[in-house]
Amino acid sequence: MEKRSLNILLMLGLMASLFTGCMSVALRLTPSLFPNFTSTIFEECDPELAREAIPSNLKLLEGLLKNDPDNKRILTALTLGFTGYSMLFIEDTDPERASRLYNRARNYGIRALGQKGSVLKRTGLKREQIASLLKAMDINDLETLLWTTVAWSAWINLNLDQPVALAQLGVSQTCLERVMELNGDYFYGLPYILMGISLAARPPMLGGDPNRANIYFQKALELNHRKFMLTQYYCARFYAVRTQDKNLFFELLDEIAQKNAQDLKDVCLINIMIQDKARKLRKMADDLF
Question: Residue 262: exposed, middle, or buried by beta-carbon count in 10 A (0-12, 13-18, 19+)?
Answer without folding.
Answer: exposed
